[in-house]
Each structure stands twice: as C-alpha cells, then as structure tokens.
Amino acid sequence: MTTSPLENLAEQTTELLTTIEGLSTLDALREAEASLTGKRSVLSGLQKSLGSLEPEERKAAGAQLQEARRVVESALEERRRLLNREARLALLEADRLDLGDVVPRDVRWPLSIGHPGLVALTQRELEDVFVGMGFTVADGPEVESDWFNFEALNIPPAHPARGLWDTFYVDLGEPETVVLRTHTSPTQIHLMEHAVATDTLPIHSVMPGRCYRRDTPDARHLMGFHQIEGLVVDRGISFGDLAGVIETFTRAYFGPDIASRLRPGYFPFTEPSAEFEVTCTICRGDGCRTCSFTGWIELGGCGMLDPAVLEAVGIDGDEWSGFAFGFGIDRCAQMRHQLGDMRALIENDTRFLEQLS
Amino acid sequence: MKVSLNWLQEFVDLPESVDQLRVILDDLGLVVDGVEHVGEGLSDVVVARVDEIRAIEGADRIRLVVVDAGHGPVEIVCGAMNFVVGNHVPLAPVGAVLPGGFAIAERTMRGVTSHGMLCSSRELGLDDDHQGLMVLDELVVPRVGEKLLDALKITFDVIFDLSIEINRPDAWSVEGVARDLATRLGRTLREPAVADTNDPTPSDSFAAAGIDDPDLCGRLSVSVLRNVKVRPSPAWVAQRLKNAGMRPISNVVDASNFVMLELGQPTHPYDAAHVAKRTLRARRARDGETLTTLDGVERELAKAGRGLGDTGEDCVIVDGDDRVLGLAGVMGGAASEINDDTTDVLLEAAFFDPMTIARSSKRHGLRSEASNRFERGVDPQLALRAAARFVEILSQSVPDLVWLSNPLDVWGNVPTPPTISLRDADVQRLLGVPIDRGQVATLLRGLGFDVKEKKRRLKVTAPSSRLDVREGDLGRADVIEEVARLFSYRRLPRHNPTWPELGYLTARQQLRRHVRDVVVDLGVTEAWTPTLGSDEDFDLLHPGVARVRVTNPLASDEVVLRATMLTGLVRAWAKNFERGTGDVIIGEFGVVFQHPSVALTPRVTRGGAGGSLALALPAENERLTVVLARPEDDARSAVALWNVLAHRLGLADVVVRSTSEAPRGLHPSRTAELVDRTSGAQLGFVGEVDAELVDAIAAVPPPRRLGVLDVDLDALADVRLATRASTFVRVPSRYPSAVIDLAFVTPRPVNAGDLAYSLRQASELVEEVTLFDVYEGPSLREGTRSLAYNVRLSSEEHTLSDDEITRARAALIEIAASLGAVLR
Fold first, then answer.
1. Do B553 and A168 touch (CB under 8 A)?
2. Would you state the pLDDT for residue A161?
3. CA atoms within 13 A on the CB side of B141
C-alpha cells in the first residue's frame, strides 16, 4: 500500500498559514511569496507528485490540493492588504503635518502669473455694460424643475416647443420633471415670483449662468455653455424699448460701428418675438464667409413677455409689461476673440489658458 | 422647408431679384438658410451618343470614349465604366462651366487628349449619384445634340431653403409663404386651379367614413377616386418634388406630396381594394393593438410613454373590419399602400388633434412630413380644397380620372378661431408706436384675418389656418406680432428706456469677483472641467454615496453630476503635466451637487404639470477649488494662498485647524479645515491631494505633492458664517511699542492659531501676535512642539514701563499655561 502524497497536507497548510501570519513587512511578503505559492513551493511540489496516482484518486487529491492552495493564497492576499494598509498608515503618519503650524513667512511663493477664464472674463465685461445701463445681476440654480424651465415659460408638457431644447433630464421623482436648465430663463421666473411675493416690481435685471443642452460638442457648441439673459418688467415698456436696449448694448459692448437689427422669430415665452443680429464683427458688414455674405451675425433672441408668462407668475398685465432677451456668453467670447473652436474652452490646456489676462 | 421661386410665382408676382427676396423673406421671419439655383451651369451640357470605347495603353482606370453630340466624333478620356456603345450620356464640351464654377478645358492624360467631360449626375448638381455617368437612356428618350436641360425637362428655378418657426403652421407651404409675400408687397394672391367632382354617383354608395373619438380626430374627409392608373408623374411634378427635397414615387403618392407642399394639407391615399368594406374610421388605439408601419417596423400602440404626462394615446385609422390601417397623421401601414394595380383610391384629408400627433410621433420615434405639419396644426377647413387640388394634379397623368360626388366629410371637434378686440392703444402700448388703424386692417386682411372696423378698435377673427392665435389677451399679443411682422420690425422706432433704479452687483457677486481677482493675482489659472462625470470617477471620492444621475446621458462617462471639482482639476492638471506644461496653479469656480437624500439642505421647489408637485432638488454649492502644482508646492503653499485670500476678503479670524476627518481625495494627515472662530462654521479645506487619487487618475503618477485649497463660496458670502473684521480703522499708537518673543512648548492638540488668539486676549496692551517659528525635536517631550511668537505691546496713552511689560508677559505666560503650553 502506497502512502498518499497528501498525507500531511493539513499540517503543511497550517505551517504555511503560520509563516504568512509571521510576515511583518511588504518586503518580507514579496520575498516569501515564491516559496509559499510559487513554482518551488510545497504546494507545487505536491501537485507534481499527484502524477503517480490513479486517475480516480488523482481527481480527489487534486480537488483537495486546490482547496488548500485557495486557503493559502487568500491568507496571503489578506496579509498583503493588511500590510499595505499598515504601510500607508505609517507613510501618512511620517508625512503628518499640522497645517496650523505653518509659518506664513517661511513659505516659498515663487512669482506666478495667473489667468482668468475666458468665460468669466467675458461675463464680467457683459455684466459691466448692463450694470452701466441700470440693470442688476441675478444668479440662479443649474438644476431646475420643469415648471421653471418650461411650463411657467408657456411651454406645457409634451408641447412640441419642448423639442426645441435638447434637454438633459435628471433622475429624481417623476420622469421629465427635473432638468439641467436649458437656458437661464427659469431665473426670470424666480425673479418675477419673488418680486410679486415681496411687492418689489419693477425688475431690470440680467441673468448670466451655465446651462446645458444634450448636444454633441463641436466647434460652435458645447454641452455646457453660458448664457446671459435680460428681463425688464416695468410700466409702459414697449417693443421700441426692447429694440433700443439691444442697440445700446450692442454698441457699448462691440463698439460704435457695430449695429443691431431685429427680425421675427419664435419663442414660447415672448410675443412678439425676435431674433437679433449684429453687424458681422469680422467684415464689419461688408459680407464674408462668417456671415454667409449677409453682413449680419445672429446673436440671440428677444421679445415682449408673453401674457401667459405674466399670468403664470401673477403679474397684472394691464399695469405691467416687459421684455426679455438672451444670448450666449461663450458666443460673444468666440466673436470677440476669434476663437476657432469652442472646445478649447473645456480642454484646459494651459498653453491656451495662458493667453488670457 | 425648400420653396421654389417658380412655384411662388404661380401665387404672386415677384419681379424682385433673388437677393431682394431673400431680404424680404428674412424680414418676414421666414429665414433663408440657403439659396440653390436649379439648372445653373447646365446650359452648355448636351446629349452625346457613345460610338466607340477604346483602351488606353498603360492605363486600366481610364478609357478613351468617342462620342457624337451632333457635330462629329469627339474624343473624351473617361474614368467611368457603367456604360456601353450606343448609350446616351451628358457631355460638357470644352468651355462649359459646370455647377460650382468648374470650367471644362482640354486635358491630356497618358498622352491622350480629352476634349470635354462626360458627367455623373452629382457633377451636374442633379443628385448625389456618383456611381458612374448619368446614363440618359434609363430616364428619357434621348436625342443626340439636344440640350440636357431640354432632355430632362429641367426648368431654371431658385430654391429658398426656409426655416419656418413652429408658431407658423400656415407658412409651412408654398401658398403660406406666398401669402406673407403678397401681404408685405401689397399684391394679389392667386389661388391654384382645383378640380370638381365629375361623377354623380354619391361617394357614400361606394365607401364610408366615421369618427369614433372626436377629441382626437376633428375632421375626416374621404374622397373616392376611380379609374386610377398608377404611373410616373409628369416631369414638372417630379421636378417640383425633387426641388423640394422629396423623391418622386408614383403619380398618386406624388400628387399627395405635391398638395402637402403647396397647400400644407397632408393627405393619405389608400388602395380601396385593400380597405375592408371600403370604410375608414378614426379612433383611439386600444391596448394590445399593433401596426406594421411602412418602414417595416411592428409597433405596439396605446402604450404609455416615458414622457411627462404621456398616457400612450394614439389615434389610428381603421377599416370596416376594425383593422388598424395606419397611425393617423404620422405614418400609414403597408397593407393598404398604393401599388401598381391600384384602380380605386380612398383619399383621406383630415384634421387631427396636434398634441396627440406630437405625442404619438415622439413616442414611436416617427417623424414624417405629415406629422410635422399635423403637430403644429393644419387648417381644419382645408381638407376638401386639398382633395380638389389633388385630383387636379393627378388628372394631369390620368385624364379620365373619376371623382365621385359628395365626398365623405365627418366632423369631430375642431378649434374655433378666436375673435379679438384690438384697440388702437393696444398696438401702441405693445409696439411703442401708433400704427394707422387702416393699415393694421389691411395687413391683417392680407393674412386672411376677418377684420371689422369699430369705433377706436378692430374686431379681428383669425383665419382657420392660424391655430397659433390664442384667445383674449394672449391672442391680442399674437395679432399685434403679426401686424409688427408684416409692417417690418426694422421700421419700428427704437427708444431707450430709463428708470430711476440703479444697476449694481450684489455683495455676493462682488465677492465672487474679488476672490477671482485675488487668486488670479496670486497665480491661479482658471480652468473649466465637466459638470457631468462617470460613476467610476464619482466612486473614487464618494463610494456608495447617493448621486444625482442624468436620465438620458450622451456618453457613459457623462452620467453623474459632480460632487467635487477636485477630480476634474487633477485630471486636467495630469494632462498638462504629461504635456510638460504642469508647473501651474490651476483652479475652478463652479457648482457641485448633492443628492437631496444626503444634502443637509435640499432645495424644495415645485414641478410637474401645473407646478403641482413638491420636488426635492439637489443641493447646489458654489465652490472655488485650487490645485497648486508648481514644483515646490505642497500643503504649506495652499495655506499661504488661503492666508492672503482671507486677509484680502477682510475675514475676522479663521483658524486653520488640522482634521483627522479629511474628505476623501485630500491627504488624511496633511489637511486642515478652515473654521471661522466666531461662527464655528467650516469655510473649506486646505491641504494636499491624496496620492491615491492622483494614482487613480494619472497615467504616470508624478513624483510631486499637489497643494489644495477648497473654499465654500456660499459660506464665504454669508457674513453670519464668514465673520468680517471691523471695517473701522485704528490710528497706531504714537508711543513706542515693545516686542517680546515667547516660545511655548505646546501639546500637539493645541492649535497654533488658537494659542495666538488666546495670547491676543491676555492683556489690553497686546497689539499683535505673530507665529515666527515652530520647533520639533528630541529635546522636547513626545507629542509637543515649541511655538515661538512675536508679541507686540503698546499703549495709546504712554510709553510702556518695564513693570507693565513684565506684567503683560506674566499674563501671556499664564494664559498659555491655561491651554497647557509651557514657556520654554
């Protein structure tokens, strides 16, 4: 009768586990690894010896050996995790720095030149123009409910007009009720509701901010983009006032030789609605490729507040009237700085960013 | 929408130049996106017969072709292979200029001279086919030497590609555009010729029609046409369709498309032989019904959609066996389609509820020329006129066509055109300028409005084609827009409004600017990293935390709203580092989001239909996150950056307090909270990026520490949280001050800033306390370090006496001792 090569497997396994328990550093573990589970290990030796067994026996013994190997390997892994954690903790302990103890005048601070973002820069220029024209500036959240982003703006659920915006919906509550705002217009609703609640009409305000559209980025569009909208609600405000404000802004921001003009358009929240165009800043109106030889570039949209919007926010349309306009901040930046590809704005290549001052 | 100038001319005289028309159309809000000239560059192209094809020595891609265009043999070198001797092909002779300005000249290839060019249809600008030459024998009976334009019966035309706004259902047709032009130009609008029924047999003796659900289908008219012969359309009809971007199919289908383009009414022809009991009925689809549409897809009907408030309502057309024939107004089914053997046609011209069509079309992902029009609102009065025009067009190819009398015409609910009272003052109030009442009336009448002139006001009724015009106040705005549009926006005078209120930035907005200016001055370069990130990125710093997801992401790594800007900034920096441009301080101003279930202060707002639902929205937090990555930067640099910022913002007293609970992503033993001593509020963190985060993000982990400053701008803007120092200024004492240095062996847990604060309270003589040295070493007890401060003492009233200094010193030592700090 031959003795099974696995006769002592239980003891051998226990011995291996004890060895593993005794490994106290990662270096020691790495060194011991070959002798524990490698080709020259006890387990591998046993594996080779199985060859002498009958097929039936070999199968059973093989399974037994495999189980032992699994136990040893998992103990080794567990040990490695523990030692890794210990090593990290030791490293962190050695690295410990009480930041309350930093002596400011001991810190080396080489002279570095910083650069504001192109969007921030442009937004500031635009805000300054509007503040000079008597507007305040309002901020608003980037996640909105469909009420503020759509319905209060006279775009009811399932209305085809919702299709005009490629909307990102947020997974909260009912489907299609929470969105990444597709425009800064919901801030207009917040402003008007607030003014009604606090009895603080009139409103003369611009609303810059980040918006999102579900649209693959290209040279002219980004998925996240920045818009600035204006809202005026006052007594006796007419379409002529709107056209005047657009013209004043255009000349103040783009320069005295750039003019604006309006043509009919459609937005659910304004009536009459208009698109506004400005003299092409490349050819100064002579006609070029950029403006398709028309001399004009479309910049944004505007119009008189639709009575349905005033009604939604509870403003008496017999006493008050108003207008709204909006356009892209990034687009202004693109025009002013002749930015060939919008995507440069999100690539964060310092060679691009360093040009800004 | 592509609109042909020739077609427009049939409705209204337009002697203006193309450029003039373009300006007028733009100004009417019918924006011209492009202008095409059909037939341009083809005048010189003639029909040539292929007489001989010879190989060219040493060339296998080109051959010598001898053609005759009526003036004897011409040798042409040609690369196309799709023709044989005897075929007729288009020849552009030397001197011809093809569309796009391509001038044909003699060319020599492989020693053989080509005297012109044989053309593909793409080279002629006729369509996109570039598989080979345009072989004319397949299309017409060609005659050698004939002008190609004549052979193909192409007429010169100008095609305006117009973008029509969705509130102009009436303008989505040639007639609608012509009506705008006629009104603007003060010219007469001509109506197109229409046929009349020509068989006394009443339609209801042959077919039947019905509406089961009048809210979905407002009108169903069915004309019975017999003696139909399905064949190709006349060339001019085919060309009109092609110019409008539609493919000619057969005379019946083409006539339907022609009428839709011309008048705006979609119609649907059914093969009567395949409509059970020759009956068409409109009804609501039932749960479980399916339809195989013309595109071969089987669709489940009446299934609620994903969209808000989408209950799954579909309007279908069924036959006499109640079998579904088509999705009304969107797409027909294959079973009753017109085929070559069709002889009897049931022509449906209907009005469907626009919202129902919009939802069906969106839910089934089916958009058609018909659904586009129906969802915007087709004139409910148009059906029979459109049918009559259909018959007129079809008669051109089927002269003995029969139209049974009294077409079936069933009505459901259709919108009633609103009547609006328009006072002169209304126009002036909205537009800012009075417009003569007579002129207003003329403009509106031109558009088909019914206008009654009363004393000081007009009573205006919208035409049935203007479903966009609303009732009451809303409708008044709609009508005034039409007046302004036809009058021309550019003619309305501009005015600069003024108001007494000032323009200004709020304190919050000024703070944001201030912070940006300070950090940029100190060397921060502003970045813009993505708001939407991957789950993997989110899990790096917020494993298992509830997150705000986007339902319909564009890409798998843009699904979660970011909860930190740190990951994005480290990634942006790593890219720059790999490029060798990583010696920077990079920072971002932006918003981070928290799921309402984990947010301390979730935002509650209202949403859903009518704003009737209470919704908890994600908390939004505006922050400034800066990664300091210059070669020697580390947590200390970040502290220095914060110190300058805190001083420049005039913060009263913020302690940099090391924390054992650094947020993930920050170095666990080199991170401190920024705590406002007065309010106890946390204003942010300062420290280093955890190397594990950099390892997870950067391809090659750089051997460099990255300092971090992460500031909560919401907290910073709130003066209750971020206490401001007094803005009052103090004139320094005229008397000499005394400076003493004190070093304290201080137990680890005591913060250096806290100790300095206490020292400042020790005596009213203390003017300033500054930490100037920290010493740690074997000479000191474990768990302590020596903190050395400059303390400046002074009095407003007199020069300090030695005694006073000694007493102050004792007080300082005593107060330090109370914190466990012992004078060294």
1. yes
2. 67
3. 0
| Least confident span in B37-51, B246-260, B640-654 | B37-51
Burial class (CB in 10 A: 0-12, 13-18, 19+), B609: middle
Q: How confident is the model at residue B612 (pLDDT cuts 50, 70, 90)?
A: confident
Q: What SS3 string covers chain A?
A: CCCCCCCCHHHHHHHHHHHHHHCCCHHHHHHHHHHHHCCCCHHHHHHHHHHHCCHHHHHHHHHHHHHHHHHHHHHHHHHHHHHHHHHHHHHHHHHCCCHHHCCHHHCCCCCCCCECCHHHHHHHHHHHHHHHCCCEECCCCCEEEHHHHCHHHCCCCCCHHHHHCCCCEECCCCCCCEEECCCCHHHHHHHHHHHHHHCCCCEEEEEEEEEECCCCCCCCCCCEEEEEEEEEEECCCCHHHHHHHHHHHHHHHHCCCCCEEEEECCECCEEEEEEEEEECCCCCCCCCCCCCCCCEEEEEEEEEECHHHHHHHCCCCCCCEEEEEEEEHHHHHHHHHCCCCCCHHHHCCHHHHCCCC
Tokens of B801: 């006496």
Q: Which chain A residue's Cα is nearest to B484?
A: A272
A263 touches chain B (CB under 8 A): yes
Give, in order, the Cα–Cα distances in Å from A340 to each of A30, A351, A353.
54, 15, 15
Q: What CA–CA distance (Å, rounded) separates A53 from B326?
A: 75
Q: Please list the pLDDT of chain A residue by residue as tens digits (357 residues).
A: 456 777 788 888 888 888 888 888 888 888 888 887 887 787 787 777 777 778 787 888 888 888 888 888 898 899 999 988 888 888 888 889 999 999 988 999 999 999 999 999 999 999 999 999 999 999 999 999 999 999 999 998 767 667 667 899 999 878 888 999 999 999 999 999 999 999 999 999 999 999 999 988 888 889 999 999 999 999 999 999 999 999 999 999 999 999 999 999 999 999 999 999 999 988 898 988 888 888 899 999 999 999 999 999 999 999 999 999 999 999 999 999 989 899 999 999 999 999 998
Two structure tokens written together for B34: 């492009």
Q: Please provide the DSSP assignment of B441-474 as one string.
A: HHHHHHTT-EEEEETTEEEEE--TT-TT--SHHH
**In A, which residues are within 8 Å of B553 by CB distance?**
168
Neighbouring-strand partners of residue B666? B689
Residue A110 CB-half CA count within 13 A: 11
What is the complex's ipTM, to 2 decimals?
0.88
Q: What is the pLDDT of residue A1?
A: 42
A110 touches chain B (CB under 8 A): yes
Cβ neighbours for B60, distance < 8 A, ≥ 6 positions apart: none
Residues in Cβ contact with A191 at an 8 Å cutoff, skipping those fewer than 6 apart: A138, A203, A205, A207, A231
CA B590 distance to own-chain centroid: 23
A127 interaction partners in chain B (CB closer than 8 Å): 505, 509
Q: How open is the CA angle B667-B670-B673, to the nearest 5 degrees? A: 95
Q: What angle do CA B737, B742, B745 make, to 5 degrees?
A: 165
On whether any CB of chain B is under 8 Å from the CB of A30, the answer is: no
Choice among B125-134, B326-335, B368-377 with the minimum mean pLDDT: B125-134
Q: Return d(Cα B96, Cα A299) in angstroms, integer.
A: 41
pLDDT band at B309 (very low <50, low <70, confident <90, very high): low
Checking if the pLDDT of B713 tops 90, the result is yes
Cα gap B458→B423, rounded to integer Å? 6
Q: If DSSP codes are grouped into helix, strand and coil, which group holds residue B23?
A: helix
| CB nearest A158 (choices: B29, B359, B584) | B359
Strand, helix or coil at B46?
Answer: strand
Report how far residue B140's alpha carbon sits from residue A305's, in angstroms, rounded to the nearest whole number. 57
